[in-house]
């Protein structure tokens, strides 16, 4: 019986209840149409803390949980190096999966996850949470209305202190993948060329600073300013075009439109761009919502309605590939051309 035929609530579990997974636990527990059944984590004390106020079973081994519980959906928030093993095991038993980003450590492992999902006919969603940030949702709507005219550049700043919890990936896979995915989503275009400078200043094993450039097929330049070296947390995105600039703050979910007064209100003449002049600044008003809750609600809806998830496996794979190309460029100090540009 599929979820669309079920009259009872969707039965959910979470594997990995650390910094991110415990929030999946909270959101599932708060949803009326979902029953949070169980969690699994090798750190049993962490698992008990994550479910202390919920009546949920706790397992030290996720395989025991899969054997003993009847589940429809599973969130996977284990370390990236374990994504392939865990996701494939869960999906092979017919359960739909939401896996935290990045999809995997390697392209081959990411493709394997996608192939297993397809072979077992289950939904695979990748947790690129920023697509569900109301600030990004609002900008996407306005870009689709061509309110900004031609877009010239998208500039992301994602800065924070070193996270002690992350040891298996660096700042490119952990943080920059957010903005790579957001840029592809907003622009509706693929990347043709990448160039990056990376450094390791404070992290024990991986790069902790990225200055990256993405050249999109539609001519837009993506700028990535990402590090684990800044004492304060910054999460901003600027979209610059003929009509001015949208400036979004991911943390506050605020979006400001700094208008170019030369063209504001004369959209029929945007084909002839005549430069920039400072205009009005407008704060946009829209409903705010926790991005993780919006993400999980979207995942559940995709399962119930039997439709493609908003962020599918291929989206996750492309973000992973581009992140790897940025790392390669940073190591070789050379631009990397993707096949789409070379033809």
Describe this structure in words.
The chain folds into 2 domains: 3-129 and 292-312, Rossmann fold; 131-288 and 323-337, Dihydrodipicolinate Reductase, domain 2, CATH 3.30.360. Helix content is 33%, strand content 27%. The chain is built from 10 helices and 15 strands. Helix 6 (134-144) runs parallel beside helix 7 (171-187). The chain is globular, with a radius of gyration of 21 Å. By secondary structure, it is α/β, with parallel strands linked by helices. The chain has a 9-stranded mixed beta sheet with strand order 14-13-12-11-7-10-9-8-15. Residues 1-5 have low confidence and may be disordered.
Q: Which key terms come to mind for this protein?
A:
single chain; 343 residues; alpha/beta; Rossmann fold; Dihydrodipicolinate Reductase, domain 2; 2 domains; nine-stranded mixed sheet; six-stranded parallel sheet; 10 helices; 15 strands; 27% strand
Strands, helices and their partners?
Layout: E1 10-15, H1 21-30, E2 34-40, H2 44-50, E3 57-59, H3 62-68, E4 73-76, H4 83-92, E5 96-100, H5 107-120, E6 124-127, H6 134-144, E7 151-159, H7 171-187, E8 191-199, E9 209-216, E10 221-227, E11 234-241, E12 244-249, E13 254-260, E14 278-283, H8 291-304, H9 313-332, E15 336-337, H10 339-342
Parallel strand pairs: 1-2, 1-4, 2-3, 4-5, 5-6, 7-10
Antiparallel strand pairs: 7-11, 8-9, 8-15, 9-10, 11-12, 12-13, 13-14
């Amino acid at each position: 019986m599929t979820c669309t035929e079920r009259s009872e609530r969707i039965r959910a579990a979470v594997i990995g209840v650390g910094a991110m997974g415990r929030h999946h636990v909270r959101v599932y527990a708060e949803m009326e149409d979902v029953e949070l059944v169980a969690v699994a984590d090798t750190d049993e004390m962490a698992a008990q803390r994550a479910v202390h106020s919920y009546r949920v079973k706790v397992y030290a081994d996720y395989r025991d949980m899969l054997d003993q519980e009847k589940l429809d959906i599973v969130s996977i928030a284990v370390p990236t190096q374990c994504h392939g093993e865990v996701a494939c095991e869960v999906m092979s038993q017919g359960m739909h999966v939401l896996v935290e980003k990045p999809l995997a450590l390697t392209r081959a492992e990411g493709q394997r996850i996608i192939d297993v999902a397809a072979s077992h006919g289950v939904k695979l969603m990748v947790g690129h949470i920023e697509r569900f940030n109301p600030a990004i949702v609002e900008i996407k709507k306005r870009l689709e209305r061509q309110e900004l005219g031609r877009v010239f550049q998208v500039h992301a700043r994602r800065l924070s202190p070193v996270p002690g919890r992350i040891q298996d990936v660096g700042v490119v896979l952990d943080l920059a993948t957010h903005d790579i995915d957001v840029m592809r989503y907003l622009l509706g275009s693929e990347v043709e060329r990448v160039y990056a400078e990376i450094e390791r200043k404070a992290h024990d094993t991986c790069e902790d600073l990225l200055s990256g450039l993405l050249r999109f097929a539609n001519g837009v330049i993506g700028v990535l300013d990402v590090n684990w070296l800044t004492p304060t947390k910054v999460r901003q995105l600027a979209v610059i075009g003929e009509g001015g600039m949208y400036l979004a703050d991911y943390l506050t979910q605020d979006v400001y439109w700094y208008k170019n007064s030369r063209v504001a209100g004369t959209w029929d003449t945007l084909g002839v761009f005549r430069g920039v002049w400072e205009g009005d600044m407008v704060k946009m008003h829209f409903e705010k919502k926790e991005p993780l809750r919006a993400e999980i609600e979207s995942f559940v809806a995709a399962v119930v309605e039997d439709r493609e998830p908003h962020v599918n496996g291929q989206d996750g794979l492309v973000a992973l590939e581009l992140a790897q190309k940025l790392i390669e460029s940073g190591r070789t100090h050379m631009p990397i051309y993707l096949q789409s540009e070379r033809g």
